[in-house]
Specification:
3-stranded antiparallel beta sheet, 370 residues, alpha/beta, single chain, binds ligand T4K, globular
Length: 370
């Protein structure tokens, strides 16, 4: 008998103990310093360098503004083309467009669902200035191949690591690849500051540039050097971030148990494919995507509806693909592009509920739906 449960969401935020936040609030209230690179903000920025294994971290008020600034900081020629993936959240191509650049959409790999490095070169033109890869669901892009292509054609590389908090390749922090990497700390992310995000980068010359761009381009009281924006993270959110830094490993451990439960049970079901993380890579535990193949008795949409009837709210990340959006679909390059893998997988991927506080009876109920 299938039970109807309380709603089960695709994710639930990790929340610090309320008393610890109240302590932070008292300190913030008495200091009267609420934002603009305060002490909690700076402490968090420093701590994140170790957590992410990167030399430079710049905190932001959300991942989207961080990505906008990352692209802006690289001074790409206005109107030039940035090769990216359509299998991502809207923020990725929109940040390219908001910078006055053109997103050129490349197909994805069937296993990692990241940008297909084999198909990038055929999209390069004299007008290409950068590659923007997304480590979707925490699966890493083929960073080595992308670096080689970028070197050969003198292109910048930006990574959207919104889903890849603490992912490492051979022990190296994912935020050290490419010119600049963006992480999101939105409430739906494993590690959150309610809203927030950061940029990581190796080049010390970018420190001042990114600092200025995040703060209206202001260098000092009487000097404005850049066309900047307001990307600052406030002290209350930084406090949430500091407390969540103490909790994220435990949350990852709990998600590992959920992952093992799913892996064990779903690998036995014909027609359900479990995409595999490359061997040398650590999981960020952000999402648990499955692929509903043709030999499963239901389509992905039918399975999604069946879950919904039972109050289990899975998500079709990323359907529609960005190339289906009204603002991109009529572009001639999109109409002519080979996007066969994206156009197949966008109908097949489903993200299952994935968070540490999922109870055993909820996991059993999820399994019963298959
Ligand atoms: N690049 C990529 C690849 C991204 O995935 C994202 C964001 C970005 C860039 C941009 O980063 P940010 O600017 O957001 O930092 C959510 C998030 O809003 C978005 O951050 C995220 N990607 C995207 C994949 O997912 P929705 O529209 O699915 O969110 P929503 O409100 O439907 O939430 C999903 C579920 O999470 C809810 O059903 C319940 C749960 N939830 C959500 C919130 C907001 C909670 O339990 N508590 C909450 O406070 O976009």
């Amino acid at each position: 008998m299938i039970k109807t449960l309380e709603k089960i969401f695709v994710t639930q935020p990790m929340l610090p103990n309320l008393e610890t936040i109240q302590e932070h609030l008292k300190e913030i209230w008495s200091s009267k310093w609420l934002t603009n690179m305060g002490s909690k903000h700076n402490e968090l920025e420093n701590k994140l360098k170790d957590v992410l294994k990167v030399p430079n971290v710049s905190l932001f008020n959300n991942g989207t503004i961080a990505l906008l600034v990352a692209i802006k900081a690289l001074d790409l020629p206005y109107g030039s083309e940035v090769i990216t993936t359509p299998f991502t959240f809207a923020a990725t191509p929109h940040c390219i467009s908001w910078n006055g650049l053109k997103p050129v959409f490349c197909d994805i790999e069937p296993e990692t669902m990241t940008i297909d490095a084999d198909k990038i070169e055929s999209l390069i033109t004299p007008n290409t200035s950068a590659i923007l890869g997304v480590h979707v669901y925490g699966f890493p892009c083929d960073v080595e191949r992308i670096e080689k292509i970028a070197k050969k054609y003198n292109l910048k590389v930006i990574y959207d690591a919104a889903h890849a908090f603490t992912t490492e390749i051979n022990g190296r922090g994912i935020g050290t690849f490419g010119d600049i990497t963006m992480f999101s700390f939105h409430a739906t992310k494993l590690y959150n500051t309610i809203e927030g995000g950061c940029l990581t980068f190796n080049d010390p010359n970018l420190v001042k540039k990114i600092y200025n761009l995040r703060n209206f381009g202001i260098q000092s009281e009487e000097l404005v050097e850049e066309v900047g924006i307001n990307g600052k993270l406030n002290e209350i959110q930084a406090a949430v971030g500091l407390e969540n830094l103490k909790l994220y490993k435990k949350e990852q451990e709990k998600r590992e148990i959920v992952k093992q439960f799913y892996n064990e049970n779903l690998s036995k079901i014909k027609g359900i494919r479990l995409p595999k993380m490359p061997d040398n890579t650590t999981d960020s535990y952000q999402y648990y995507p499955i692929v509903i193949e043709e030999d499963y008795p239901l389509t992905r949409n039918e399975l999604y509806e069946k879950f919904k009837e039972r109050n289990i709210l899975t998500r079709k990340y990323f359907y529609p693909a960005c190339t289906d959006y009204e603002c991109y679909k009529n572009d001639l390059a999109v109409k002519l592009a080979d996007l066969s893998v994206v156009n197949d997988l966008k109908h097949k991927v489903l993200c299952l509920p994935f968070y540490g506080s999922l109870k055993q009876e909820e996991l059993e109920a999820i399994l019963e739906v298959f």
